[in-house]
Amino acid sequence: MSGAAALAGRAALRAGAGLVRIATARSALPIVASIDPCYTTIGLPEDHGGRIDNSAIDQILDAIGNSDVVVFGPGIGQGSGLRSITARLIGIKDVRLLIDADGLNNLARLKDWHTQLRTRPVLTPHPGEMVRLWASVTDAPRPQDRVQWACGLVEKVPSVLVLKGAGTVVTDGQRLYVNTTGNPGMATAGAGDVLSGIIAALMGQGLSDLDAAVLGTYIHGLAGDIAADAKGQISLVATDLIEALPAAFRSLSGN
Length: 255
Known about the structure:
The chain is of the alpha/beta class.
């Protein structure tokens, strides 16, 4: 899903990242590169289904070594090779890692993955992905309350959790934030990829993972509100959120 990677990359640029590189399967690279000339691309080996292959791991590790923040998941799909890559990534000590979308789905299929973490990742699940994460670490019934659900997962998995949805919940187990911006029009494909790019960009500018997640969630929703005022909630699409980010940042800074 080449659009997902491009949305995350474009959002990161609009949120202040100085340099964005998108590592994607070689066959998808021309599509991703053509969407925006402002990020660079890295072509990776792929399997017969066009997904990133496990043989790409050395190239990925080299790229990580030259990066402040890594986003893993938007548009990658699922497969055994990707699960192997996921296992390697969570085993890297102290990497600033945000996992989203199919990165979370691959993660949830790894046995005892929460015991293999060598870093404290930022996890950004929607409710469906959250169900899979929860089931992968505990047999306990999930709480019906969203705040309790988010806090319960962080108790089992040291992380910064962004549980997306109406009133997105952000917590690291010590502090808690429930977002107040955003609207139903943002329930559109690609909006989560935009959020990942925003949070990663803020992490790269020196904010703590939790502060980046809180501010990123707020700005994401504010951009959605600005876009909805201009175009209406019914017509809202993910690229509208990116185009509204400059106005959202200006609004927040009072400039």
